[in-house]
Amino acid sequence: MDYEAVIGLEVHAELQTASKMFCGCAVVDSTQAAPNTYVCPICAGLPGTLPVINAQAVNFALRVALALHCAIPPLNVFARKNYFYPDLPKGYQISQYELPLGVNGWLEIDTASGPRRVRIRRVHLEEDTGKLNHAPTPPGAPPAEDYSLVDLNRAGVPLLEIVTEPDLHTPEDVKAYAVQLRAVLRYLGVNGGDMEKGVIRFEPNISVRPTGAAELRTRTELKNLNSFRALERGTQYEITRQIAIWNSGGQVIQETRGWSEAEGRTLPQRGKEHAHDYRYFPEPDLPPLALDAALVEAARAALPELPAARRARFERDYDLSRADAELLIEDPALADYFEQAVAAQPANARRPKVIVNWLIGELFRLLNETGRPLVAAPVPPANLAALTALVSGGTINANTGKAVLETMFRTGRAPAEIVAEQGLAQVSDAGAITALVEEVLDAHPDELATYLAGKPTVEQWFFGQVMRRLRGQGNPQVIRAALAAALTRRQASA
């Protein structure tokens, strides 16, 4: 029997506010800060404390909901989501349930069968939980010595939950949606997208059914996936596992499962809760949140150019391929750098594709080798544009350009200074190169005889000898033309 997967995706994204969702504690990197140093009575859940809504978090959430084409209810309500877990100090999480901030939106993604809209069911605000650090049991120690440590630095951080309808059907679709949504959040400036630090986490709800059937079968949820690789692999594994269960006559159990990257499989964690299990009720300490129509329209008008629109513009205005445009727009800092470099090229000699090649090729290589982000690159966009102009204009060749870029990266200096100081200008004098070609041919009679005997690959060896004598600064086109002419003459007289 053939099956199709039915997948909905929940995404939890921490908002880049200065303070937490309901108190004044600073939002810090929970992977770097000392544990439990950014905690107050409110986010620690002490009795008698009163939460206050973070206005910036509301503004950020509103921007996301509008970017995802959601309707914005004029009134939304915070609720208590009750459950007990060691990293949840209050014994409940302040979230939104019946009246979320945004509803009925969509996000367009590219799939193997073409572009498709994924429906967004809801966008709502809540607070993040703390973090458990599981201490390993020392070798030989009894199981009773197992323990976990609770860090509440993350407790209360503003968290945005974005929930799709079950519109996804393949691991590739799920990844495409996650990549596109992450890009939107980064363009809006509300989330850094650093998945390794857990600031954005993916939770697919997966079921399978016979192809063509309308029923929705029992689903499982994969929790807290923090990489595209884990999302894609975990989804594929769960689809395969569920198909095997149905084919064997078994029954899929509704449960929450975790993904083990090391083992390459999903593992059961707990039974999957239903909404009523959380005993939602309105948060008594927070009034309903009213969003004025003028506020909503002002937020809509202030939205920046979003990834899909920027990609289309890059393809249209810069004549880039879809692949190049996709790569550039994934990171707004990269897209900005590219546009600034193109703008720095002479208006009558702009070559966007050349900028792309140097940017994602040589400059990225240097960044990766040194572990620097693009924003810390010591090569400003204008300097990269100047370097490409020197190569395109024939002042230096491509190999020399790579060496110059390395010096630029080390020193922060402009390319023209480096070329002038080190005497790196390309040799393009046709007469001088022709004379040098003749010298090289005369100095290597055995290799010349091999070429004349019918081995054309020796021509490349001669090219290397000429370039070596010119210390790598010869114009390749001039050398090849002079070499081809000289070899033709020698062949004619042989």
Q: How would you portray this structure in words?
A:
With 494 residues, the chain is an alpha+beta fold. It has helices spanning 55-67, 171-187, 228-247, 293-301, 307-317, 322-329, 332-344, 352-370, 381-392, 398-411, 415-422, 430-443, 445-452, 458-469, 476-493; strands spanning 3-14, 75-76, 78-82, 92-96, 102-111, 114-127, 131-135, 147-151, 158-164, 200-210, 220-222, 255-260, 265-271, 281-282, 289-290. Helix 12 crosses helix 14. It is elongated and about 95 Å long. It starts with a strand and ends with a helix. The model has no long low-confidence stretch (mean pLDDT 91).
Q: Characteristics of this structure?
A:
494 residues; alpha+beta; 3-stranded antiparallel sheet; Arc Repressor Mutant, subunit A
What's this, in brief?
Helix content is 40%, strand content 19%. By secondary structure, it is of the alpha+beta class.
Instruction: Give me the Rg, rounded.
Output: 30 Å
Distance between the termini: 73 Å
State the helix count: 15
Biggest sheet descriptor: 8 strands, mixed
Report the mean per-residue pLDDT as an integer.
91
Q: In percent, how much strand structure appears in the residues? A: 15-25%
Low-confidence stretches: none
Task: State the share of residues found in helices, binned by percent.
Answer: 25-40%
The beta-strand count equals: 15
Tell me the overall shape. Answer: elongated
- Which strand order do you get reading across the main beta sheet? 5-6-9-1-10-11-12-13
Number of domains: 3
Class by helix and strand content?
Answer: alpha+beta
Order of secondary-structure elements? EHEEEEEEEEHEEHEEEEHHHHHHHHHHHH
